[in-house]
Design a protein that fits this description.
By secondary structure, this protein is an alpha+beta fold. The protein has one domain (17-185): NADH Oxidase (3-Layer(aba) Sandwich), CATH 3.40.109. It is built from 8 helices and 5 strands, in the order H-E-H-E-H-H-E-H-E-H-H-E-H. It has helices at residues 14-19, 36-46, 66-82, 88-98, 123-143, 154-157, 159-165, 194-197; strands at residues 29-30, 58-64, 107-113, 147-151, 172-182. Helix 3 (66-82) packs antiparallel against helix 4.
Length: 206
Amino acid sequence: MSASHNAATPPRDPLAFLESRRSVAFTDLGAPGPDPAQLDRLLAVAARTPDHALLVPWRFIVLEGEARGQASARLAAAYRLAHPDMEEARREKFAAIMGRLFTHAPVVVAVVSRPDRSTRIPVFEQELSAGAVCMNLLHAIHAQGFSGTWVTGWAATHPLALAVLGVEAGEQVAGLVHMGTARQMPGERPRPDMAALVRRWSPAGA
């Protein structure tokens, strides 16, 4: 097991544990990743998300094992098909990136937003629920001692890429969550100036 994989229990201060979470680039993720039982638990935790009217306006597509390479190869072919007029060297450069996209991390989960437009619950609110699933999943990955990252990009937005993943009409990818063991942990990134972002309401300022 990689020395960077730390399955130790969270510190006694849960907030300090949450403060220690860092996204790791998917190209810096490797084995080991969660086993099937661990992944099932991760997804169950991710699903414990605010969901007005219990619509469950999201679902999961899991890429693991050999399916990662197969899906990546199909993404590369889709990229070439989508860019017939692009200069060949440039097209092949990005097609090659697509051809490896899902092969770095041991497991990739596509969180698919599928809002129910027939209900009174606003679509925007349902989409926020799918975003909350992604964030829950990242926290769960961290709590289990692994690392992860949440990305989108061409593979999560272009119709041909969505067809490769099996995303259906009326759905969109809220995030591609890559998970595994960090080959190296990144340093702390700059964080927002909270004093500039927080305003406490008062009648005088309303």
